[in-house]
């Protein structure tokens, strides 16, 4: 793993709050086909110089860099807990009606 890496971040055109981090210049077709089909068309969000000590919204620079080193990508999915809480609140509201 390198001390720092230029990374591109893309959001999914199919899945809300789903992002993929890859090395800048990564060829999309070189990523696993199953990942590409589920992710949909990548929409560029940003490029950044990532270091292991960088704090990100849901993870750390170290975790992203390790995943990019091992798999050529880091996939950030929405937190399931948030969805569970929203769904739980909806069910309560529906029962109160």
Q: Which descriptors apply to this entry?
A:
single chain; 97 residues; alpha+beta; 3 helices
Structural class: alpha+beta
Apparent shape: globular
Q: Regions with pLDDT < 50 over 5+ consecutive residues? A: none
Range of helix content: 25-40%
Instruction: Provide mean pLDDT, rounded.
Output: 87
Largest sheet: 4 strands, antiparallel
Q: How many strands?
A: 4
Percentage of residues in DSSP E strands: 25-35%
N/C terminus separation: 55 Å
Treating each run of at least 4 consecutive H or I residues as one helix, how many helices? 3
Along the chain, the helix and strand elements come as EEHEHEH
Gyration radius from CA atoms, angstroms: 16 Å
Strand order of the largest sheet: 3-1-2-4
Notes on the protein architecture:
With 97 residues, the protein is of the alpha+beta class. Helix content is 36%, strand content 26%. The chain is built from three helices and four strands; from the N terminus they run ββαβαβα. The chain has helices at 33-39, 61-71, 80-96, and strands at 5-12, 19-23, 42-50, 74-76. The protein has a four-stranded antiparallel beta sheet. A hairpin with a 6-residue loop joins strand 1 and strand 2. The radius of gyration is 16 Å and the shape is globular. The model has no long low-confidence stretch (mean pLDDT 87).
